[in-house]
Design brief:
976 residues, 68% helix, MMPL family RND transporter, Alpha-Beta Plaits, MmpL_fam, rod-shaped, cell membrane, membrane, 5 domains, Multidrug efflux transporter AcrB transmembrane fold, MMPL_dom, mainly alpha, four-stranded antiparallel sheet
């Protein structure tokens, strides 16, 4: 290739190169060696970036969010956990889970509880008969246990804890037909980090393949492409090494997203800057400049653009550190530091490597730069700026009109491969449980008194009922409804039935009492019959007594006569009688003793007579009493008859009451059964004796805090809680709780709400605020940098304005692609990340174009525009396409969110490169004319004083117009 003829110096090009490019040109080789040394040192003193990102990963939990603080308060109040990291261990069987599954489950729980380093609390409902049904599926084939892990989600300890639990579960031999899965929010985050780590290498490899192919197409030189790849490799290695070193020593935190974004941005930006450097160098060489002159021309034309672009990207990324959400905040410092390293390398290493390669004549262009198409395009733009601008706005409207239909998705499950362990577990859970069961909300109400009493439980069930009746809420569990439905027998209807049932239990005794009345009546009848017999006997006895009295009186008279006769006989025989008493041996003489005995018997007749007289007197008294005794019996019979009548009457009443009570009890029992079957929660009441039940006291521990002053409720949604619909339930839940406790003893209680939807609501609100903070900060920073570089307020506004328009259009195109064509909603992080990144990278190409405008402004505004477009068109387009292709390689990432971010940025770069930079910005500059450069003073046409050194004004103007058509743009006007 012949040596190009040296060209005359341009009017705006300094004759003496500045200090910095001269030093870089002279010390090119040492600079390359220094950068190689930086790469070697940073990659030696610290592990690789992926390893550091894994061990020093920051938590993704927003610690100042209400949901996070609520979860921490719940854990502290119940003395269970101090992190938001939880997992679900799910058991699934081919058949309903039986005793063998329970033993397997118990062993898993036992081993998990032993790991105190990674496990903080195990909420075991399935082992308790009171709550077992609440954690088991309706088909009895699945059950789960919730485990609270150490470390906040996204952090290194949290990921380690999820892995540890998974290893424990895998270590327990499973019975035939039963599988165990570890899933939930914590393991899902861990799988996301793992997938992101594996995806970086794959995406990086594909990116370099794409870049190599595109650079070969553009430059048609393997050596040129190899040198450019060397620049990119060293910049990437240096950026990775510096960030890994700082992260390893705790200067900054890292995340999966930061790791992925840093690598791709360093590659894309490094390739862009290499294209800027090599492209401008080739352009200068094509215009006939020497290698050294081309180097200085390149540095003069690109250094401020690279610096401005790099500072713009780094500054915009650093603005993410102002965000409150760790998702965005974690991107700020690592990406900013990495970009600063890449910019510094692009300003020093890239020119140095270009100098070294040029020394060996390796970087000369292999073909002439084709500018005719770009020149014609520029001519059309400056000739019809208004129609061109209208067409570009119409194209932008394609994307802008898709924005109103934008819908987002908060469920990370949808953005990870289906074969990740957590998603496999979720899929197993979906086969048996509703979608929200494993992602509930946790509501805690803290009062100033002990809640373990019937009155406060009425308020508690009122709160649970109010929350349950919110549209979209599918289940509320607490101590008054541990299975999601009201406790059996806990309604007033059943309590009334229970009272009737209590009476029914005494019905047997009441019937026995009635039977006893019948027995008593029977005995009374026997007594009455006996009384009748007694009255008859007494009457006979009275008659007999009366007759006996009469006969006794006659006997007295006979006895008195007999006594008198015996007395006469005794007086007559008294002398003979004396002999018998005087005879000493009378006892021995039988006749004597016999006669003596006769006389003794005659003496006893007096006593007989006297006793008969007394007997007669007593019989007279008995004869008078007996009629009275007979008269007493008939009243007794009448009294007993009345008693019998009363007993029979009581029996009839008691039997009637028993029959009525039995009928009422049957109705009341049916009423209680009906209330239980209907799961009616309108009249909740739990009697005081229920609190003395050991089973109920055991259940209290799951829902009531140890001091009894706080209660928690587990709320499940009907649909996906990680969705806009689920998020919209959070405020109604809080409002329902507030209204439910108003005017009750709980008024003024503190309410805490955490969980999946609550967390994503905070993220939704936080992302909107963060988007405003970071967006305004980035836009302001970009405007200031553009203002400093262009020294034009209007130009800076045009750059920022077109970038904002490009941002809206490109995001709309992404919505059109993902939501309407592919049927996948965009992840909630995509909007904020795409906005910040597009604000940063979208201004690069406009900056390069406007810098070329500024370089060519001496030829007049329209001519300068044509020359700038012709000179930078291929370079900027190549850089934009390479950057877009690099971002598009995120499509091969296992993280769908990164694929969405990458495609959104790629669409934005394509729109910015092909529409904004090629048509919109030049047409705006043409329409604004000299006002585009305000407050600088520029002339629409070349000034005569500026052209006098080159010849008469008319001749020079003709030469310029001819030069536009006949010579490549950017050429130097030769003095005549």
């Amino acid at each position: 290739m012949s040596e190009p003829v040296e060209a005359a110096p341009r009017v705006d090009q300094p004759l003496i190169p500045p200090f910095l490019p001269r030093m870089i040109h002279r010390l090119a080789l040492p600079i390359v060696l220094v950068w190689l040394g930086i790469v070697f040192i940073t990659n030696t003193v610290a592990p690789q970036l992926e390893v550091v990102a894994k061990t020093h990963s920051v938590s993704m939990s927003p610690t100042d969010a209400a949901s996070f603080q609520s979860m921490m308060k719940v854990g502290a109040t119940f003395k269970e956990f101090n992190s938001d990291n939880s997992a679900m261990i799910l058991l699934e069987g081919d058949k309903p889970l039986g005793a063998e599954a329970h033993r397997y489950y118990d062993e898993i729980v036992r081993r998990v509880e032993q790991d105190k380093k990674h496990v903080q609390h195990v909420q075991d409902f399935w082992s308790d008969p009171l709550t077992a049904a609440g954690s088991q599926s309706h088909d009895q084939k699945a059950a789960y246990v919730q485990v609270y892990l150490a470390g906040n989600m996204g952090g290194g300890l949290a990921n380690e804890s999820a892995l540890a639990v998974r290893k424990i579960v895998d270590s327990v031999p499973a019975p035939p037909g039963i599988k165990a899965y570890v899933t939930g929010a914590g393991p899902l985050f861990a799988d996301q980090s793992h997938a992101g780590e594996k995806g970086v290498a794959v995406v990086t490899l594909i990116t370099f393949v794409v870049i190599i192919v595109m650079l070969l197409v553009v430059y048609r030189s393997i050596i040129t492409v190899a040198v450019m790849l060397g620049m990119v490799f060293i910049e990437l290695a240096a950026a990775r090494g510096v960030v890994a070193t700082l992260g390893n020593y705790g200067v900054m935190g890292l995340s999966t997203f930061a790791n992925n974004m840093l690598v791709l941005m360093a590659i894309a930006a490094g390739t862009d800057y290499a294209i800027f450097v090599v492209g401008r160098y080739h352009e200068a060489r094509g215009l006939g400049e020497t290698r050294e002159q081309a180097f200085y021309t390149m540095f003069h034309s690109t250094a401020h653009v690279v610096l401005g672009s790099g500072l713009t990207i780094a500054g915009a990324m650093y603005c993410l550190s102002f965000c409150r959400l760790p998702y965005f905040q974690s991107l700020g410092v690592p990406c900013a530091v990495g970009m600063l390293v890449a910019v510094l390398a692009a300003l020093t290493l890239a020119p140095a490597m270009l100098t070294v390669a040029s020394f060996f004549k390796l970087m000369d262009p292999k073909r002439t730069l084709q500018t005719r198409g770009w020149r014609r395009m520029g001519t059309a733009v400056v000739r019809w700026p208004a129609p061109v601008l209208a067409v570009t706005i119409a194209v932008a409207l394609v994307g802008l009109l898709a924005l109103p239909g934008y819908k987002t998705d908060y469920d990370n499950r949808h953005f990870l491969p289906a074969d990740t362990p957590a998603n496999v577990g979720y899929a197993a859970a979906d086969r048996h449980f509703d979608q929200a069961r494993l992602n509930p909300e946790l509501l805690m109400i803290e009062t100033d008194h002990d809640l373990r009493n019937p009155a406060d439980f009425i308020v508690l069930d009122k709160v649970a009922k109010a929350v349950f009746h919110i549209p979209g809420i599918g289940r509320v569990q607490t101590i008054t409804r541990p299975l999601g439905t009201p406790l059996d027998h806990s309604t007033l209807g059943f309590q009334m039935g229970a009272q009737a049932a209590g009476r029914l239990q005494t019905q047997h005794y009441q019937e026995e009492q009635a039977n006893n009345l019948l027995k008593q009546a029977d005995e009374l009848r026997k007594t009455m019959a006996t009384l009748h017999e007694q009255m008859q006997v007494t009457q006979d006895l009275s008659n007999t007594t009366h007759e006996t009295t009469r006969l006794t009186k006659e006997t007295v008279q006979i006895t008195e006569r007999l006594r008198d006769d015996i007395a006469n006989f005794d007086d007559f025989l008294r002398p003979i009688r004396s002999y018998f008493y005087w005879e000493k041996h009378c006892y021995d003489i039988p006749v004597c003793w016999a006669l003596r005995s006769v006389f003794n018997a005659l003496d006893g007749i007096d006593q007989v007579a006297e006793n008969i007289v007394n007997l007669s007197a007593n019989l007279d008294k008995l004869d008078r009493i007996q009629p009275k005794l007979v008269a007493l019996i008939p009243p007794q019979i009448e009294s007993q008859q009345r008693n019998l009548d009363t007993i029979m009457s009581n029996y009839a009443i008691t039997q009637g009451l028993n029959d009525q009570a039995k009928a009422q009890a049957d109705n009341a029992t049916a009423q209680g059964d009906a209330f239980d079957k209907a799961k009616n929660d309108d009249t909740f009441y739990l009697p005081p004796e229920a609190f003395k039940s050991p089973d109920f006291a055991r259940g209290l521990k799951n829902f009531i805090s140890p001091d009894g002053r706080a209660v928690r409720l587990i709320i499940s949604h009907e649909g996906d809680p990680a969705s806009p619909e689920g998020i919209r339930h959070i405020e109604p839940i809080k409002q329902a709780v507030h209204e439910a406790i108003k005017g009750t003893p709980w008024e003024g209680a503190k309410v805490y709400l955490g969980g999946t939807a609550a967390t994503y609501k905070d993220m939704h609100d936080g992302s909107n605020i963060d988007l405003l903070i970071a967006g305004i900060a980035a836009a302001t920073l970009i405007f200031i940098i553009m203002l400093v570089i262009t020294r034009s307020v209007v130009a800076a506004f045009v750059i920022v304005g077109t970038v904002l328009l490009s941002l809206g259009a490109s995001f709309g195109l992404s919505v059109l692609l993902w939501q309407y064509l592919l049927g996948l909603k965009l992840h909630w992080m995509v909007l904020a990340m795409a906005v910040i990144l597009l604000l940063a990278v979208g201004s690069d190409y406009n900056l390069l174009l406007i810098s070329r405008f500024k370089e060519e402004i001496h030829a007049g505004l329209k001519t300068g525009t044509i020359r700038a477009m012709a000179g930078s068109g291929s370079v900027v387009t190549s850089a934009g396409l390479v950057f877009a292709a690099t971002m598009a390689t995120f499509m091969f990432s296992p993280l769908l969110v990164m694929a969405q971010v990458g495609t959104t940025i790629a669409l934005g770069l394509l729109f910015d490169t092909l529409i904004v930079r090629s048509f919109m910005t030049p047409s705006l500059a043409t329409l604004l004319g000299r006002w585009f450069w305000w407050p600088q003073h520029v002339r629409p046409r070349p000034a005569s004083t500026m052209l006098r050194p080159y010849g008469p004004r008319r001749a020079v103007r003709e030469l310029i117009l001819a030069d536009v058509d006949e010579h490549p743009p950017g050429g130097v006007v030769q003095p005549r």
